[in-house]
């Protein structure tokens, strides 16, 4: 029997209503909630009485270590991540660091990731084979990101782009679109959603050529349709292939 347990909780895109019941339960049972400051602020009033600990952005390793240290004190610890903790989240780093803490069991609680919460806002853009690609080259070389974009286009996947922009990477969406435009037509149906599940959610549909010149920020998730994706009444729809007449 392991002595300690840490819950790694995906809190969904923002609003409490978009958190799973299991996630709410794990946070309610926790003595201490650890997370990036922005996510702790997003957690509703319901968790105000909890001890909250945070480390700044980019200090992911320190945040994980903090969880193990708090758990070793006998506290019930929940680490919160936005969306799902296993999709560009902290779950894998926790397992890697956890090798040094054999007394601690890790339990991952699934969350609603930006791909499906954003898809719901836009309509049904990933209703067939799709893939997710992050445009952040902090931990992945851009050369590999480019290779994955070309492979996704060649495979006719709908593509969800995470981390399409940041202060230091303003033109990355444009660069990604240019790579996709090497093989995809400029009229390809696309869309993007900013601030899913938070105040001021905004969404737009456009063509791939238009997407190339759009300004998005780090709270945006971008969708590129497959060859069968259509814009129907303002919604981005990837068909399954049913015959309807
Ligand atoms: N673990 C998260 C992803 C973290 S990577 C998840 O599963 O959703 C950070 C990227 O996720 C952002 O750059 C953006 O592309 C996307 N994202 C996360 N939350 C979002 C939100 N509320 N609205 C729009 N995009 C979001």
Q: Describe the largest sheet.
A: 5 strands, parallel
Count the helices. How many? 8
Walk across the major sheet and give the strand order.
Answer: 3-2-4-1-5
Give the CATH architecture of the largest domain: 2-Layer Sandwich
- CATH class division of the largest domain: Alpha Beta
The CATH superfamily of the largest domain bears the name Tetrapyrrole methylase, C-terminal domain
Query: How far apart lie the N and C ends?
Result: 59 Å
Counted beta strands:
13
Radius of gyration: 19 Å
Determine the structural class based on helices, strands and strand pairing.
Answer: alpha/beta
Spell the H/E element sequence.
EHEHEHEHEHEEHEHEEHEEE
User: Which word captures the global form?
Assistant: elongated
Average pLDDT level:
95
Number of domains: 2
Bound molecules: S-adenosyl-L-homocysteine
Low-confidence stretches: none
Helix content: 25-40%
The CATH topology of the largest domain turns out to be Methyltransferase, Cobalt-precorrin-4 Transmethylase, Domain 2
How large a portion of the residues is in β-strands, by DSSP E? 15-25%
Give the SSE layout:
Layout: E1 4-10, H1 21-29, E2 32-34, H2 37-42, E3 51-53, H3 60-72, E4 77-81, H4 91-98, E5 104-109, H5 114-122, E6 123-124, E7 130-134, H6 142-154, E8 158-162, H7 172-180, E9 189-194, E10 202-207, H8 208-211, E11 220-224, E12 229-232, E13 235-238
Parallel strand pairs: 1-4, 1-5, 2-3, 2-4, 6-13, 7-8
Antiparallel strand pairs: 8-11, 9-10, 9-11, 12-13
Helix pairs in contact: 3-4
The protein binds S-adenosyl-L-homocysteine.
